[in-house]
Amino acid sequence: MSGAKERMVARAAREIRPGMVVNLGIGLPTRVVNHLAADFPVCLHTENGLSGIGPTLPAEQADRNLIDAGGAYVSTVPGSAFFDSAASFALVRSGRLDMTMLGAFEVAQNGDLANWKIPGRFSPGAGGGIELAQKARRVLVLSTHTDRQGKPKLVERCSLPLTAAGCVDRIFTDMAVIDVTPEGFALREIADGLAVDDVIKATGAPLILPEGEIPVF
Amino acid sequence: MRLPDKTTSMEEAVSQIESGATVMLGGFGVPGTPFALIRELLRQGQRDLTIIKNDANETGLGVDHLLAEGRVKRLITTHIGLNPRAIQMMNDGEIEVEFCAQGILAERVRAGGAGLQAIVTDIGLDTELARGKATVDIDGKPAMIETALRADAAFVHAAKADVFGNLGYCATARNFNPMMAMAADLVIAEAETVLPLGGVAPDEVHTPGPFVDHVVELGELSEEYDIVRR
Lengths: 217, 230
Description:
heterodimer, A: 217 residues, alpha/beta, Glutaconate Coenzyme A-transferase, ten-stranded mixed beta sheet, three-stranded mixed beta sheet, globular, B: 230 residues, eight-stranded mixed beta sheet, three-stranded antiparallel beta sheet, NagB/RpiA_transferase-like (chain B), CoA_trans_fam_I (chain B)
C-alpha cells in the first residue's frame, strides 16, 4: 500500500471514539484495525456474525470457522460474541451501530453513495452495504480519490445505481478529508505534500475551501 | 418416551429433491456452507434449481460447482463479488440473479420460517432493489413489502447435532443456517459430529430438532471445508 493510502487509513482510524460499536467494510476499511491500539476500548462488528473482532491471523494460525465479512481469517477477543445474520443486521438497523466505514465507486456531493453495481461489467451485489449505509449513525467512506483511469470518484451526481441516498458524512481519500455538508463537499484536511489545486482538479464537484491554513495528515 | 432418530444417509436425504426445486444453502463464504450436501446434489443431477444463498462461494467451491455444471436457473443472493463465474453468467443471461440486502434476506427467510407472509422495511427504498415492490405508509413514512422466502429444501451445516436434529453451530459458521433451518419443507442438516440424544445440552441448541427432517453425519471433512489460501 502506498504511503498516502496508509496515512489515509491511519487518519480514518482516529475518527473512532472510545466506546463505539464500529463496522469496517470490505477492502481498505478493514485495514483500519491495524491502527487501533490493543487497549483502545471499541467493539468491532462484522456482519457475518461477530462482535469483538480480534487481530487478523495468517493461514497457519487460522480457525476455518472464523472469518470477517471480506473472508479474512480473524480472531476473537475476551468478550466476543457470535450470532446469526438476522441478529447481526438487527444490530445494524436498530441504531446500535455507531459508525461504519465503507468503500465507494462514487460519492455525490449530497452524500449519495454507489458501491455495488457497475451495470454489465462488475456487479458484485451490495451484501450488507445498503443497511450499513442507510442505518449506521455515522457513515464514513474510505476510497482512493480517483479510480484506476484517474476519473474522480467524488462527483456532482452518481451515475451508478445507488447503495443509499444522502448517507455519507465524511470521506477519507489518499488526497484529502472531505465532509458532505448541506452546501456540498467541504475540504477539511489535505494529504502531506499536496496543494489545494491538486485536490480541486481530482474532484468532480465544487469544493468548499476552509478559511486559513488547512490541516495536513 | 424417546425422541425419534432422524439420521439418514446423504444419498437418501438428497434424493427427495426434484429438478426445478428451490434450495436454500447456509453459509457465508466457506464457514457454514454445506459442501458435502451440495456435492451430493451435484452427483445426483437435479437441474433448473433456484438457489437461495448469501453468496456464490468462490471459484471451485460449493455453489460454483452447481453453476459450472449448468444446474442453476436462478440465484437469490446478496453478494457474488468473489465468484467471477457467477458475475459472468449473470451478465451473459445464463442465470437470473435477484439481489437482496443481506439483513433483509435473513429477515425474509426468518419470516418464511416463522409462518409470516412478508416483512415491511425502509431498507433499499432509494435503490433499484425497490423496483416493482409494493410500498406502504407506516406512521407517515414510506416502507416497502419484502415477501417471505420459503424453499422446497434447505441444506444446513452444523458443528454438532444429536440424532433428533438439535443443532449447534460454530463461530461465524452460524450465519444464515438457523433461519434457513426453519424455512423449508425438507430440512437436511449435515453435522461434523452426530451425538446421541442428550449430547447437545438444551441450552446449547441453536436450531431445535423439530425443524429438522434429516441428520447426515459427515465423515472426514473434504478440503472444501478447509482454510482458503488466497
